[in-house]
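A further point concerns the way the authors explain their paired sequence and structure data. Nothing conveys this as quickly as seeing an actual entry. An entry of this sort, consisting of the sequence and the corresponding backbone structure tokens, reads as follows:
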Amino acid sequence: MGCCSSKNGDSKANRIARWRSTGIVALRDSKLKVFPREVLELDRSVRTLDLTHNKIVDIPVEVSKLVNLQRLIFAENLIERLPMNMGKLQSLKVLTLDGNQITTLSDELGLLVRLERLSISGNLLTSLPETIGSLRNLLLLNVSNNNLKNLPESIGSCFSLEELQANGNSIEDLPSSICNLIHLKSLCLNNNNVHQIPHNLLKECKALQNISLHDNPISMDQFQQMEGFQEFEARRKKKFDKQIDSNVMIGSTGLDEGLDL
């Protein structure tokens, strides 16, 4: 018994030593029901924490001790809420929370000012905090498959945003501030209730190459009559031609790339 205990202890010690030296804690598909407390002992050593596809319900408040954390991935768990003090993770660049049971995001989200990618699809969100506008370095926002009825006006302050995915919600209108997103390249709003989009969108968002609006009560005629449509269409075709010239593999939905109503 003593031998086995020692062996297990050595195994755990080796694992922690490896985590500490690499800065990467990867525990995907580990059948965990609780957050592994030994990770918290690593303190400033952890840069990536991946706990995808477990059965974790709660993230401990002490996760805020991992102040050098850059990538936090909790996809496919049973998490209902984020802990207080998440805003202390000032080095965080990637936060992935897809496929959980999160109903709300606190205002503290806006403190994660270095965040570049936020993906929280497949949850139970009914709204996003106005503080999301403080995420000036955000490149990707994925809030697909939630229960959102709108996007906050402050989203127009996410000036670096290049890709916005909000498929599978109940969104009816887009805030006028979305026209401020001059770096936006892709806007995906399939399966919503969008009946109109800001009339200046195509004119102001000069980087926009792809709009996807499948299964919304908006017509192609409405879209084509918008100011800036011809310029948008030229960008869309240029992107598509470049894909062809680069011998990019086009899948079954490849021809839907770009304007998709």
